[in-house]
């Protein structure tokens, strides 16, 4: 069921865009802000206490910072697609391989903590929906072939459940649970904070966005 939910969150988002054909990704900024707040709060409430309980603070901190740097590096190639800001040339018809590879690495890493903490599943699901919608809007409005777009979305949809499957079945990874989870925490911290501060015009907060952020944090706290 976990694998199916992760795949459907992407495929149904793509189907929604394909059928309704929204042109403006700005309509989904509040949903994006909610997802960022929810993911950030879950990371702080669920993942951080767990890794700090199992290892010394400096080691955990080192891997968290490594995760932040890894995500910064990935964004050189993905152009911000992980947090809903697709800065690509829509006139190009070539398949965006670098974007695809970066998103796949990011999505694969997202799947690892789900095996040990099911609450993170909800954060990732809510994170994936607006990202998949915004990515689908770009792909369908670009000159990229529809067959390539569908292949992109299909492969993207299976990467996070693949990460969860690997974590559940590759026993050697159990010995590296803390460093891998700390690395993913760094990725989540970077992604969620960028979503919160970059999804507003001029990096300012309005009342609706503030309310959505508070709602996201409160929802994560109550899980």
Task: Describe the protein.
By secondary structure, the chain is mostly helical. It has one domain (2-16, 29-85, 94-222). 75% of the residues lie in helices and 0% in strands. The protein is built from eight helices and no strands. It has helices spanning 2-20, 29-54, 57-78, 97-111, 119-141, 146-169, 177-198, 207-222. The mean pLDDT is 85.
Protein traits:
single chain, 223 residues, mainly alpha, 0% strand, globular
Task: Describe the structure concisely for a colleague.
The protein has 223 residues and is mainly alpha-helical. The protein contains 8 helices and no strands.
User: Average pLDDT across residues?
Assistant: 85
Order of helices and strands: HHHHHHHH
Main structural class = mainly alpha
**In total, how many beta strands?**
0
What is the element layout, followed by pairings?
Blueprint: H1 2-20, H2 29-54, H3 57-78, H4 97-111, H5 119-141, H6 146-169, H7 177-198, H8 207-222
Helix pairs in contact: 1-5, 1-6, 2-5, 2-7, 2-8, 3-4, 3-7, 4-6
């Amino acid at each position: 069921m976990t694998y199916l939910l992760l795949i459907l969150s992407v495929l149904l988002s793509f189907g929604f865009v394909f059928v309704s054909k929204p042109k403006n990704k700005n309509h989904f900024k509040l949903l994006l802000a909610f997802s960022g707040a929810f993911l950030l709060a879950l990371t702080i409430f669920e993942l951080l206490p767990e890794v700090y309980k199992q290892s010394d603070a400096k080691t955990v901190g080192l891997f968290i910072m490594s995760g932040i740097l890894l995500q910064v590096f990935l964004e050189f190639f993905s152009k911000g697609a992980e947090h809903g800001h697709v800065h690509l040339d829509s006139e190009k018809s070539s398949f965006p391989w670098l974007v695809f590879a970066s998103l796949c690495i990011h999505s694969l890493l997202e799947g690892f903590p789900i095996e040990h903490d099911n609450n993170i599943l909800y954060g990732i699901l809510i994170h994936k929906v607006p990202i998949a919608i915004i990515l689908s809007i770009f792909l369908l409005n670009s000159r990229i072939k529809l067959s390539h777009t569908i292949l992109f979305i299909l492969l993207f949809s299976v990467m996070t459940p693949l990460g969860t499957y690997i974590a559940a079945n590759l026993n050697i990874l159990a010995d590296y649970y803390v460093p891998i989870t700390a690395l993913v925490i760094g990725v989540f911290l970077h992604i969620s904070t960028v979503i919160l501060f970059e999804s507003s015009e001029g990096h300012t907060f309005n009342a609706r966005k503030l309310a959505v952020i508070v709602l996201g944090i409160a929802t994560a706290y109550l899980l």
